[in-house]
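We keep the chain:
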Amino acid sequence: MQRCPNCRARLSGDGDSHCRRCGMELTRLLEAEQAAQQRVVAALGRLEVGDVSGAIAALEQARSLYREPFSALLLDFARSL
């Protein structure tokens, strides 16, 4: 996450758990983003071994946690296999 979802201020890269501008608590959002990234990595591993249905499930979980363009593209790719 590069910007605060509340006020759109740029987030500092120092791992601060609050927005510097509006003070919004970001810990849970950052945890969800990290969990989604882990699901995408798991999906790539499943694709590597040919488990397309497992990859699709992992990518759907990732998309439910945090929406980003890469996981959407990867999900479209996996569904096309």
User: Anything to note?
Assistant: Residues 28-80 form one domain. Residues 31 and 73 are 22 Å apart (CA to CA).
